Structure formats: structure tokens, C-alpha cells
Amino acid sequence: KADPTSSFMLGIELISGGQVAPGLEELERFVTLAPSHIRAADAHATLGSVYLSRGQLDQAAAHLREALRLEPLRGSAHASMGRVLVQQGRMAEGIGELQKSVDLQPGDLETLRLLGIMQGRSGQLDAPVKTFRRAIELYPKSSRDHYLLGRALAAMGQISAAVPYFAQAVVLDPQNAEAREDLRRAEGDAAAGVRR
Asked: What is this structure's pTM?
């Protein structure tokens, strides 16, 4: 009897080499033949991430749910599930999964940033400010997060508080045209006493 691990290894190798369809077939074969194998959660998480990248959200969700059933503390699977749910229009659930991921993997800047953006899009005002402050604490040289914190503060009407974050974003990345424009606008609004 063949060891199912070979299907897992081949699937990963094929996907890594750009042969996605045959790689998915091998991983699907693996999870069917060895659903309780020690690498099953890895296979499901990989399948979920690849299906997500291909826009196949139902398949992605099914595999990510199984990965999380097998390994509930897998932060990357929570992050991918959050992305799936957000794309499916299930914003609150998606934010919950992104928050779980950030709690499990506090240094994951990409997921932390996405969490803050989704919090803002869902109408939360205080949450993205806290999230982007956390991102800046972890990565103080991130122009993007200074900019996003400035945007979150401006969305709350705290224009004067936003100015230094826009300014720091420009210092860290002088080519950041969005930050330069928002800095110019915020400085003018702050001087005029405007609250947006």
C-alpha cells in the first residue's frame, strides 16, 4: 500500500512549481485517503489558500473549516477564512476570523492591516485606530500604516490628530502620493478648523 504522504509532498511541490491544477488533485487525493494524517491540516489549509487565490470561495471555506477543526490554533487558516468570509459579504464573521488570526500571530502585519481596513469599512471607528496603532508599534517604519492610521483618525473627525501620521507616512515614503495629498488636505482643514 502506497504511503499517502507522497501525494501530500507531490501536491505541495506541484503547486510551488506553478502546476496548480495537478497539485490540487494530489492534495485532494491526500485528504481523501488520509483524513486524520498528521499533515491533513496542512493539506486543507493549503487547499483553502489556493482555492481562495483562485476565487473558488466555497471550496476554500470547506477546506479551511476542516483545517481549523483539525488545528483550531492555526492563525494562517483563520486569516484565510477571514478573507473568504469578507469576500462572501459576511463582514462581521470575517473580521472575527481576522481578529483570531491576529491574536494567534501578532506579528502578521498583512492580516493586522486587513483587519483595520475591514473594521473601518464595517463602520467601526475606534477599532481601526487601535489596530493601526498596534501595527505602528510592531512596525514603526511602515509608511502605509501611518497613512492608514491618519485616514482612520480623519474618518473620526480628528483631523489635527491625523496630520502627524500623514506627515510621518510622507517622511517614511516620500513617493506616497496619497499620503502627500491627504497631508495637504488635512493641514488645510486643521488650520480652518474643519471636522469631516
From this structure: 0.89
What mean pLDDT comes out for the span 134-140?
96
How far apart CA 39 and CA 45 sit, in angstroms, is 10
Between CA 192 and CA 99 the distance in angstroms is 37
Q: At what angle do helices 75-87 and 109-121 cross, to 10 degrees?
A: 30
Q: Judge contact between 43 and 31, C-beta under 8 A.
A: yes
Nearest Cα neighbor of 56 from 11, 14, 12, 88 is 88
Burial of 1 from C-beta contacts in 10 A (0-12 / 13-18 / 19+): exposed
Query: What is the C-alpha to C-alpha distance for residues 51 and 77, in angstroms, rounded to an integer?
Result: 13
- C-beta atoms surrounding 108 within 10 Å: 18
Percent of the residues in the chain that have a pLDDT greater than 70, as a whole number: 97
Residue 106 vs residues 41, 112, 153: alpha-carbon distances, Å = 21, 8, 22
Confidence of residue 59 (pLDDT cuts 50, 70, 90): very high
Secondary structure of residue 36 in the 3-state scheme: coil
Contact 138, 149 (CB under 8 A): no
Residue 174 grid coordinates: 516620500
Nearest to 145, CA basis, from 126, 168, 161, 120:
168
Assess contact for 165 and 158: CB atoms under 8 A.
Answer: no
